[in-house]
Amino acid sequence: MRKKNCIITGGTSGLGLELVKKFINNSFFVHIIAKDSEKIKQLTNYFYEKNIKSFKFYRADLAEKDELDKIIFEIKNLDTIDILINNAGALFLKRETNSNGIEKTFAVNHLSHFYLTISLIDLIKKTKNAKLVNISSMLHKFAKPNFNDINFSKNYNGYVAYCNSKLMNILFTYKINKIYPNYIKCYAVNPGWLNTNFGNNNKSNIRFLLCFIRNIFAKKPSYVAEEIYNICTIEKYLNFSGKYFEKGDISKSSNLSYRADLQEELWIKSLKIINEQKNMK
Ligand SMILES: NC(=O)c1ccc[n+]([C@@H]2O[C@H](COP(=O)([O-])OP(=O)(O)OC[C@H]3O[C@@H](n4cnc5c(N)ncnc54)[C@H](OP(=O)(O)O)[C@@H]3O)[C@@H](O)[C@H]2O)c1
């Protein structure tokens, strides 16, 4: 029997790594998109030591469209895509841009996943009931999006940029669910506060204190990986496409996330920015 293909972005640490393990242990072939070559090497060795071979790494910085293009080209050789989990995420307290001048929180957390998904859409549609999971956050409720300055060029605030990107994950989920209701099952997931290294790329005096508190109070990412695995594999969830999940249950996302005009505007602006990046080359 063919192994089902599951693609996971940011599968080298935290929630992404737990998802990779969960799907591999349940007979999926897992395609892992990740940036850090050293982590990729270490994990490859770890899997080989355990005699696990049903995985493939694709190295790319999701902020960079050219790097994403190369792996999309490779992934298009697959016969099917059964599950795509857009998990990678980052927080940039200081404003950073990619090589085309696009602000990185937007580029990594939303635009890369939007582009990956729509580029692979024909392949995804080939599988009946293919699943798309976008990892969001409850922090989307604090978003203050300004679609006239999606690049956050004025008064940048890293936390607001992050909250905005997590709202975009939900707007995108709701929109794609409307566009392809008969083909794809789409879910937005708030994983809750996780005990991972998230945000550690930012230097802060209170980081050590935060890590300490996180070790005690935050959730194990393996629990959330189990919840997401269930959403992707248990039949009852087929009826819940286009929903937002918390703790494995359907929940209500912010009022802004249900606004059809914002869903549409984000879709159109994301396409426009991708095309502009194409024309820069
Ligand atoms: N931690 C929390 O409390 C929390 C709460 C709510 C939502 N979330 C969301 O959950 C998801 C997973 O976060 P996590 O807590 O597991 O964080 P994490 O341990 O920091 O993992 C993030 C993953 O994303 C990858 N990534 C980041 N930037 C990338 C880029 N430019 N290109 C390619 N890969 C990139 C990282 O790979 P590299 O190491 O190779 O950069 C890493 O594998 C994120 O979307 C986050 O927003 C987290």
Description of the structure:
The chain is α/β, with parallel strands linked by helices. The protein has one domain: NAD(P)-binding Rossmann-like Domain (Rossmann fold, 3-Layer(aba) Sandwich). Helix content is 44%, strand content 15%. The protein is built from nine helices and eight strands. The termini are far apart. The mean pLDDT is 94. Bound molecules: NADP nicotinamide-adenine-dinucleotide phosphate. Residues 10, 12-16, 34-36, 39, 61-63, 87-90, 108, 135, 137, 191, 193-194, 196-198, 221 line the site of NADP nicotinamide-adenine-dinucleotide phosphate. The site of NADP nicotinamide-adenine-dinucleotide phosphate has 27 residues, from helix 1.
Helicity range: 40-55%
Low-confidence stretches: none
Number of E-type strands = 8
CATH architecture: 3-Layer(aba) Sandwich
Instruction: Assess the beta-strand content as a share of residues.
Output: 5-15%
Supply the CATH class: Alpha Beta
Overall outline = globular
User: How do the helices and strands follow one another from N- to C-terminus?
Assistant: EHEHEHEHHEHEHHEEH
Biggest β-sheet, characterized? 8 strands, mixed
The whole-angstrom Rg is 18 Å
User: What topology, given as strand order, has the largest sheet?
Assistant: 3-2-1-4-5-6-7-8
The SS-based structural class is alpha/beta
Bound ligands, named by name, code or SMILES? NADP nicotinamide-adenine-dinucleotide phosphate
CATH superfamily caption: NAD(P)-binding Rossmann-like Domain
Number of discrete helical segments: 9
Mean pLDDT: 94
Distance between the termini: 43 Å
What is the name of the CATH topology?
A: Rossmann fold
Structural domain tally: 1
